[in-house]
Amino acid sequence: MAAMGQEGEDVDHYEVLRLPSGEEGAALSVEQIEKAYRTQSRLRHPDKRPDDPNATADFQSLASSYKFLRDESLRRQFDARLRGRREAAARAAATGVKRRKAVSDLEERERAFAAGGGPAVDPVELARREDKRKAADVKRELDEFFAAKKSGVSGSASTPAHGDKKGGTPENGPKTDKGKILKVSWEGGADYYTAAKLDEIFKQFGTVEDIVIKTRKSKSKGSAIIVMASKEAAQTALKNHSVYNVFPVPLIVASVQESGGPPARSTQTPEPRTSNIDGTGFSDLEASVFRKLQEAQKRKKSG
Fold first, then answer.
1. Where is the composition biased (Polar residues) (predicted)?
2. Dihedral of the CA atoms 116, 300, 134, 209 (nearest 10)?
């Protein structure tokens, strides 16, 4: 270790005597220093090192350091200088750590900026913004969804579950209460459930006003929209999950909340594909709405 010398030189007198330096050296007694000097004098005497050209200089250095440390005033000053050197080294090391961390943080922000095309944002803040954006999208698309249903924009006839009733709400009729609508999906055969079969299942909870089977390109997944006669009937259907698990192909049932929020229960995200609807004339907007609803619910659960 580099340290202060006899008269300010870079010599650590403790190390010359093979003693611990720093705080340990400062705590050594005069007797311990004398003992170390005697031991080193025997070992490092020039007579014992006739082939070492540096033996004499080394022995003189040993004697000089011993004399230096025997002087209480010089030793106190020397210990203070060593302490100052140690503290300066510690500050420099701490500063180096902080500087390296600052550089690392700066590089991380630059990478995030380059990857995202903008300044890095806290993940929690990003998630909050995304949820807010999706909630706004869901509300807007639900409004469009029911407006299209009311005006019959899709123009397709329904295949109602009851009698000869046509799909959609009459042009001048009341808007369908979202609390009455259930989204049903299943995996294991897209054609497994028909409107009649779903009607048979859900009429035990109350009157079913309409059923829409949504056809897909997928042969394994199917989904449908079920409009109950009342919100109470829809809630009863939602609470009886055990009923849907007794079938060879279980049903997954979710609701559209009054607030336009996420479904009450959802375990799958519909495929984002264009589809044709056999039923009450719901447009492809329905698929987009429910996809975003279920994505928002999954984000809420994972957060």
1. 265-278
2. 150
Rounded CA separation 195/203 (Å): 12
Pairing of strands 251-255, 181-187: antiparallel
Domains and CATH numbers, the chain: 13-87 (1.10.287.110), 178-255 (3.30.70.330)
Six token digits for residue 225? 């929209």
- Ramachandran region, residue 28 (left: φ > 0; alpha: ψ -120 to 50; beta: rest): beta
| In the chain, % of residues over pLDDT 90 | 22
- The tens digit of pLDDT for each residue in 145-194 reads 677 666 654 444 344 444 334 344 444 445 667 888 988 888 877 788 88
In the block, residue with structure tokens 């929209």: 225
Helices 123-151 & 285-302, crossing angle to 10 degrees? Answer: 150
User: How many Å apart are CA 154 and CA 282, to the nearest integer?
Assistant: 7
Residue 229: both structure tokens together: 């006669």
Q: Would you say 1 and 12 are in contact if contact means Cβ atoms under 8 Å apart?
A: yes
**In the predicted model, is pLDDT for residue 59 greater than 90?**
yes
User: What distance in Å separates the CA atoms of residue 126 and residue 209, rounded to the nearest whole number?
Assistant: 41
What pLDDT does residue 143 have?
Answer: 73
CA 21 to chain centre: 48
Interatomic CA distance for residues 107 and 129, integer angstroms: 25
Cβ count near 146 (within 10 Å): 19
Q: Give DSSP secondary structure letters for 106-128.
A: HHHHHHHHHHHTS----HHHHHH
| Banded pLDDT at 74 (limits 50, 70, 90) | very high
User: The whole model's pTM is what?
Assistant: 0.34
